[in-house]
Amino acid sequence: MVTRTTFVESRGARLAIDIDGDGPTRVLLCHGGPGGPDDFAELRALMAELAIPCARFDQRGVYRSVNLDGKWDLEAYASDVDAIREALGVDRLVVFGHSWGGVVARAWAKAHPDRVTGVLLASPSAAVGSAWPEMEAEVMRYLRSRVTLGQWLAIGLWSLLAMVPGAIGDHAMGQVYRRVLRAYTGSTQVPEWVRHSSARAAHHSRVSLRRQPADVLRNLGLPPGTPARAVFGDRDIYGPLIGRFIEENPDIATSVLPNCGHVLWHDAPDGWRAWLLDGLRACGLLVPGPLP
How many other CB atoms are there within 10 angstroms of residue 222's CB atom? Predict the structure, then answer.
């Protein structure tokens, strides 16, 4: 797989992009967080196997990307995605978002529906605006059920330290993500991207999200026939909010994978692969016929 890294000037940000494959980029990957720059290693390997050129990027203020104007609202994130699309030299994209990245993907799709080939969402954040604190509380309940008291206290301590500006806060934010990922997957292996977390991006993005109207991402308004799909695990961190997501987003075809949590490719690799390949085929990126 050939990968090249470039930088794009957005409105108020300088964004680092990793581009995989030759030819026009067909898929843009939006990582979760906010503040944690997932490198999507497993997903990018699958895209390479399928010979589908794709790209990922560090969101504004995270790792190699810089927030220049201090804005963290959905309009700013959507503007970043469209600046990347333009820099990639393509008219339309399939946008994929995991967790918080699902909010970023939906924000761009709703702002620019004529530029969307398809929307694929893996365990997208299930609420924004006034419902965001409720979603975070549901996540905390899930985490508490998955860790010991000592581990829970450690997460709380690192979360407090993540409020400290600068390198100390960023290190603490990485420690939070490290422990959260272990609670999600049970794995003691720590992804490299955890070391590059940004406490500032995490904090300011969450504050901004609480100020958004609760219905800001409903009804994407995509052209007829444009695929929009989401998938959750039946043991996902969002719990009962998944049902609300399904009710409030009838334009997004939503599936639930059995015996699966928030990191679907870890918990249910076969079901996840089948869902993703079916979605890529619906977006016109795979030829009709049996899934590979």
Answer: 19
Q: Which CATH number goes with the domain that contains 74? A: 3.40.50.1820
> pTM of the full predicted structure?
0.94
- Domain-terminating residue out of 207, 238, 258: 207
> Is 187 found in the same domain as 137?
yes
8 Å CB contact between 98 and 39? no
Nearest to 98 by CA among 43, 26, 173: 43
Mean pLDDT value across residues 85-95:
97
C-alpha distances out from residue 225 to 72, 80, 88, 255, 290, Å: 31, 25, 24, 18, 22
Contacts of 279 (CB under 8 A, 6+ apart): 118, 120, 227, 229
Residue 233 CA to chain centroid, in angstroms?
15
**Do residue 150 and residue 9 come from a single domain?**
no
The residue segments making up the domain with residue 22 are 3-130+215-282
Q: End-to-end CA distance of the chain, in Å?
A: 19
Band of residue 7 on the pLDDT scale cut at 50, 70, 90: very high
Task: Look at the alpha carbons of 159, 160, 163, 169 in this order and tell me if their dihedral is positive or negative.
Answer: negative
Number of domains present in the structure of the chain? 2
Mean pLDDT score, 126-144: 92
Q: At what angle do helices 241-248 and 132-146 cross, to 10 degrees?
A: 140
